[in-house]
User: What shape does this take?
Amino acid sequence: MPALEIIGAPQSNYVWAVRMACEEKGVAYDLKPERPHAAAVAAIHPFGKIPVMRHGDVELCESKAIVSYIDRAFEGPKVIPEDPALGAKVEQWVSLGNVEFDKVMIRQYVVGYVFPKEAGKPDMAAIGRAAEAMKKQVEVLDAAVAKTGHLVGDQFTFADINILPMLFYARRFEEAKALFGGAKNLTAYMERHFARPSFKASMPPRPEKT
Ligand SMILES: N[C@@H](CCC(=O)N[C@@H](CS)C(=O)NCC(=O)O)C(=O)O
Assistant: This one.
């Protein structure tokens, strides 16, 4: 079996999610830290985004495709259930994560603090707008995990894996901390899953950057 290479800076929430999926499954991999648009990344992702993956002659970009491949190609507990309805629900939450939650929580809110357009001067108006948009997102997630403590069924899946790094990064900042504090199901969900060995083992060395 050739080595599985995960290529991308570990601070990326998407690299973190792919690595966490490997840890959940007990799949060994080599992490090759590379920034977006580095040659090794641009060779696989047409828009230079991380993560990308190489496994023998299989090269892939996009975290959802990468995790789907790893889940099918390797042994270990399934992170995307084979049951059609549950598997589709995982895809649904991963799409919502990537299209809705990442856009607001990471690209607008966290990046607004960590990588402001003007160095050292976060655009507080833009951050405030992102925090406003996060209110509804927090309500949605709080309701979604209320019943089982998971996003899909009563099992830990890639739907959870995908969202946890986003929540971890967002709650480092005051507005998110306050919003999350008012969402008791979501708070319990984070406390429970942030303690998972797979979450800790894949945590970036300095998680302040995305
Ligand atoms: N849909 C992609 C998103 C990947 C992504 O946005 N990665 C960020 C880092 S967290 C990136 O490479 N950004 C660089 C850019 O957008 O140019 C996936 O799921 O892998």
In short: The chain has a mean pLDDT of 96. The radius of gyration is 17 Å.
